[in-house]
């Protein structure tokens, strides 16, 4: 799969993620030898100038994987073409350039839209009108589209319709980099390559599920985008709902794109949409203190930087098991985790005069998506030489102590999958639209009814105090533990 055209080549995503991922694939000898990478954007660069700039950024982002000699070999595959997405002539030049690089052999191409979302449609239309989307024997044409895919259901639906005028669905790869994470894929392995979890994975044993994506960073230099999106569009519609579907889905009968995506779609279809009343009760939103003073943020902004939502999956497996989703910026630490909270034991056998009233912590399975990637099982153990006293203890699996080498970046796996034409870890048109259908009523409830009102939290906390009381109303509590980054020896 030899030509990769990156639109939006001078942007952050290209230098921070795409080129380092392609470089690492090259280093691991996974990139086909005849690959060409063509950057396309408005900034003026020669091939050489772009390569020099990418060498600097890749050195920074690929860290110790960077090797001067390998880079020089890899950089010979990189080219640049200046152009405007709304200019037909630029696409003709691109077509000629591709022809020149590829020679006469039929060659597959990937068009990667790393532009700002308002240009997706323009890029797709021009690819269509210039004939660059047409496939022939041995010459596949695939388009990769970054998030955010639309800003609500209506715009996502319109975008899908317009894309389908140029590309068939099987040519479209809507990327969610969370699905490229090893630990997210491991969730599929945990559930579907082991037999001990499945019998417990339902309403009979699970009390509730918590999915948290907490970030320590603030909005930084991204206010221009973030203040129009907020945490619901930025994290819930895509990453958190993807984590939910992988946690809740049935086992597909084959690990193939449509089999996997059909099961994820069924989960999204089963999620109960909220009425305005439910939004007021089942969600919370907040801004970190100082958000409104960040450069580029509107002074009266109502954009939340933190939110929680209680979702119900209305099917046999999950009836009555709430899924609590939570995400925020400027929180205590960076952690993405899925907590499967099991039910209390039905009868407390070891209660005595002293601990009769004490409720023990029920079993918990904690899946650490990042950092400190791993899985923990929490269970009660007898304290030695202390009667029948018990304590919560942990079985701890960590990728870094079990496997050598560093965890690959999600983009490596996803780029390879596009090259081989495996769309299992990409969102299908219906999936993206269903996800918007869940998020839209929440956003509407917030903006039209102003309910629940915007709360505030101090940076460095687990969100506002309201989130603690809110969970307390369900007689539950958040599992707020920052991951241990250094594994203690032994
Ligand atoms: C992006 C969001 O999709 O995911 C960012 O736009 C967020 O706001 C990022 O910081 C988080 O990704 P990761 O891989 O660092 O968890």
Description:
This protein is an alpha/beta fold and 490 residues long. It folds into 2 domains: 3-146, 3-Layer(aba) Sandwich (Rossmann fold); 179-485, Dihydrodipicolinate Reductase, domain 2. It has 14 helices and 15 strands. The longest helix has 26 residues, at 223-248. The model has no long low-confidence stretch (mean pLDDT 94). Strand 4, helix 5 and strand 5 (141-145) form a beta-alpha-beta unit. It is globular, with a radius of gyration of 24 Å. A 9-stranded mixed sheet has the order 14-13-12-11-7-10-9-8-15, sandwiched between helices. Helix content is 37%, strand content 19%. The chain has helices spanning 12-27, 47-62, 68-75, 88-102, 120-129, 153-166, 182-192, 223-248, 257-270, 276-282, 399-402, 410-420, 429-449, 465-472, and strands at residues 3-7, 36-41, 78-82, 109-113, 141-145, 172-174, 206-214, 283-288, 306-311, 323-328, 335-342, 364-370, 374-382, 390-398, 455-457.
Number of helices: 14
Query: For the record, what is the CATH homologous superfamily label of the largest domain?
Result: Dihydrodipicolinate Reductase, domain 2
The rounded Rg comes to 24 Å
The SSE string, one letter per element, is: EHEHHEHEHEHEHEHHHEEEEEEEHHHEH
By CATH reckoning, the class of the largest domain would read Alpha Beta
Largest sheet: 9 strands, mixed
Going across the major beta sheet, what is the strand order? 14-13-12-11-7-10-9-8-15
């Amino acid at each position: 799969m030899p030509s990769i055209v990156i639109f939006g080549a001078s942007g952050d995503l290209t230098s921070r993620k795409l080129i380092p991922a392609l470089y690492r694939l090259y280093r691991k000898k996974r990139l086909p030898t005849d690959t060409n990478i063509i950057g396309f954007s408005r900034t003026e660069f020669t091939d050489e100038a772009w390569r020099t700039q990418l060498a600097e950024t890749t050195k920074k982002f690929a860290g110790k994987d960077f090797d001067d000699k390998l880079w020089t070999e890899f950089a010979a595959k990189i080219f640049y073409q200046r152009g405007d997405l709304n200019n037909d002539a630029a696409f003709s030049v691109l077509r000629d350039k591709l022809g020149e690089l590829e020679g006469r052999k039929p060659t597959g191409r990937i068009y990667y839209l790393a532009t700002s979302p308002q240009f997706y449609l323009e890029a797709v239309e021009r690819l269509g009108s210039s004939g660059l989307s047409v496939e022939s024997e041995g010459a596949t044409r695939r388009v990769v589209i970054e998030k955010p895919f639309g800003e609500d259901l209506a715009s996502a639906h319109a975008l899908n319709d317009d894309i389908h005028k140029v590309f068939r669905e099987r040519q479209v790869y809507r990327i969610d980099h969370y699905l490229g994470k090893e630990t997210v894929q491991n969730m599929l392995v945990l559930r579907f390559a082991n037999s001990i979890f499945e019998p417990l994975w339902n309403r009979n044993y699970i009390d509730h599920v918590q999915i948290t994506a907490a970030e320590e960073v603030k909005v930084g230099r991204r206010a221009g985008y973030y203040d129009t999106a907020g945490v619901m569009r930025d994290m819930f519609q895509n990453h958190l709902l993807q984590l939910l579907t992988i946690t809740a889905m049935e086992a597909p009968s084959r690990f193939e794109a449509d089999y996997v995506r059909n099961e994820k779609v069924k989960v999204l279809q089963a999620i109960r949409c909220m009425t305005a009343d439910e939004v007021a009760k089942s969600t919370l939103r907040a801004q970190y203190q100082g958000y409104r003073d960040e450069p580029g943020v509107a002074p009266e902004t109502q954009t939340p930087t933190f939110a929680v939502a209680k979702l119900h999956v209305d099917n046999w497996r999950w009836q009555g098991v709430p899924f609590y989703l939570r995400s925020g910026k400027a929180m205590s630490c960076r952690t993405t985790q899925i907590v499967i909270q099991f039910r209390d034991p039905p009868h407390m056998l070891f209660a005595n005069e002293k601990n009769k009233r004490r409720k023990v912590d029920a079993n918990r399975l904690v899946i650490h998506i990042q950092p400190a990637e791993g899985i923990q099982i929490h269970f009660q153990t007898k304290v030695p030489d202390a009667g029948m006293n018990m304590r919560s203890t942990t079985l701890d699996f960590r990728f870094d102590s079990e496997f050598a080498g560093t965890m690959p970046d999600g983009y490596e796996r996803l780029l390879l999958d596009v090259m081989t034409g495996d769309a299992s870890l990409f969102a299908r048109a219906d999936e993206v639209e269903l996800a918007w259908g869940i998020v839209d009523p929440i956003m509407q409830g917030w903006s039209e009814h102003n309910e629940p009102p915007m709360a505030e939290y101090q940076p460095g906390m687990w969100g506002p105090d309201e989130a603690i009381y809110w969970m307390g109303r369900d007689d539950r509590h958040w599992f707020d533990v920052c991951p241990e980054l250094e594994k203690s020896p032994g």
